[in-house]
Amino acid sequence: MLAAVIASLACVSLSDAVPRGELRQQAIAVGDRSREYLLYLPAGHEDRTKHRPLVLVFHGGGGTAKGIAREVGRSLHGIADTEGIYVAYPQAIDKMWDFGAGEVSEALEARIDDRSFFAALLDELTGTLPIDERRVFATGISRGGQASYFVACSFPERIRAIAPVAMPMPVFMLELCRDSPGAAGVAILNGTKDPLVPYDGGPITVGRRQRGEVMSTDATVEFWRATNGCAKQPTQRSVINSARDRMQVERTLWDQCEYAPVLLYRIEGGGHTWPSGRQYLPRFVVGRVNRDIDGASEVWSFFQRFH
């Protein structure tokens, strides 16, 4: 069903971006499987003399490439048209990423080598499009946020910066990221009232089921601050309170770093949601959507630091 739905979107022009880019259905062979993704080609992409940035956007567990493209693309595609960015939305098998380790992956009936999919996707995109390989980035929400950490630590020579949303670093990825020779820039956008993934660390709880354990947001920031050789004291700290939503965002930046900056958006009162996105499930299930910041705009603002 997913393939049929995505096929109907092939070469769809978006009506809310002027000039408009195209969202296309794509597929690549990985082993004996055909793996799908959506690719947004920005306005002016016909000019292949320009090397452009690439942003990978990962959907969450139970989500789809189509869903996250609709959610994030409402803002990100307009930015892509203006800035000339390729955006790729990979699709997980049975809507769940398999990282080869961790409680959720180990419980899957059919194991999938998503690491090979991510590597093949990067090969395909950088091999067929004029992409600036020094500016390849990743973001995603929930388990898609975990995928962002995963590609940064699995392919440190290929991923320049990441921006996980609603996800501190999973405990099971700590060893992988500690052994990684790279130091990607990291922006983290986490809500303090996330009912599924605890801001202060502990088990992820969906319904009555636990889905692995995460580090606290502060411990995640400290890990990347130390990994990236940043000064202990942040360079900037500000509060954003522009919407009447009884929430605010504390933005803290470490950019006096040997390798790459680290940025934290502490979303006071925010839930398991994309900033300025939809209230896709009731508040008692996922918490509240913050309107003080636009997630896609803040993510791209951070990625723009890497030239």
Can you describe this structure?
The protein has 307 residues and is an alpha/beta fold. The protein has a single domain (2-303), classed as Alpha/Beta hydrolase fold, catalytic domain (Rossmann fold). Helix content is 28%, strand content 28%. It contains nine helices and 13 strands. It has an eleven-stranded mixed β-sheet with strand order 1-2-3-5-4-6-7-8-13-12-11, with helices on both faces. It has a two-stranded antiparallel sheet with strand order 9-10. Strand 6 (131-141), helix 5 (143-154) and strand 7 form a beta-alpha-beta unit. The radius of gyration is 18 Å and the shape is globular. The chain starts with a helix and ends with a helix. Residues 1-17 have low confidence and may be disordered.
Offer a quick outline of the entry:
The protein is α/β, with parallel strands linked by helices and 307 residues long.
SSE topology:
Blueprint: H1 2-7, E1 12-13, E2 22-30, E3 33-41, E4 52-58, H2 65-83, E5 86-90, H3 103-106, H4 114-128, E6 131-141, H5 143-154, E7 161-165, H6 174-179, E8 185-191, E9 202-206, E10 209-214, H7 217-227, E11 236-240, E12 248-254, E13 262-268, H8 283-286, H9 295-303
Parallel strand pairs: 4-5, 4-6, 6-7, 7-8, 8-13
Antiparallel strand pairs: 1-2, 2-3, 3-5, 9-10, 11-12, 12-13
Helix pairs in contact: 2-9
